[in-house]
């Protein structure tokens, strides 16, 4: 890491205050299980890729948007995990112990949250593709982002920074062209074409 991040005191106090606010929730089993499930499901953006693939299957007209989202999530991962994190070193939150959930403890820098950035990228692009599902998309994104605070994988400020980065990337990606597949003739179309051709030729021969 090129830079070891020194957290400003106001930011540190903010992070500590948010962590304390989450403490009562960590004693509720159902919330605990839900938070760990949300966190793990979004590892490597698996949750968002599953949604994108499902969208492409159910709505063939949205396949181009699904492809664009997948490409954008790849770019986001390279930027956040491959460039920003190695440049800025920040330790993960303390007071973390392996429990019955056996959650994976990342070895990378805590700043910014890759889960939060990918969640907001996905929610931004899914909102554009399927506006009616905006409550679901943003609800999932909020759940994934806050789960990183709940599980003490990230400081609250890491999550906010990741969400801001994800929003910028997502909005920029929406201005990119949608991949479109070159239409190809279906076999049925070819058969119909040949039938029409033969009918025309035979009709012409009968008049000669």
What does this structure look like?
Helix content is 65%, strand content 2%. It is mainly α. It has one domain: Vanadium-containing Chloroperoxidase, domain 1 (Up-down Bundle), CATH 1.20.144.10. 31% of the residues are buried.
Q: List SSEs in N-to-C order.
A: EHHHHEHHHH
CATH architectural type: Up-down Bundle
| Class by alpha and beta content | mainly alpha
Anisotropy-based shape? globular
Q: Total domains, how many?
A: 1
Total number of strands: 2
Give the strand line-up of the largest sheet: 1-2
How large is the share of residues in beta strands? under 5%
Q: What is the radius of gyration?
A: 24 Å
Parts with pLDDT < 50 across at least 5 consecutive residues: 204-208
Instruction: Please give the alpha-carbon distance between the first and last residues.
Output: 85 Å
Q: Superfamily at the CATH H level?
A: Phosphatidic acid phosphatase type 2/haloperoxidase
Q: Give the class-level CATH name.
A: Mainly Alpha
Assign the CATH topology: Vanadium-containing Chloroperoxidase, domain 1
Largest sheet: 2 strands, parallel
Number of helices: 8
Tell me, rounded to a whole number, the average pLDDT. 85
Helix content: 55-70%
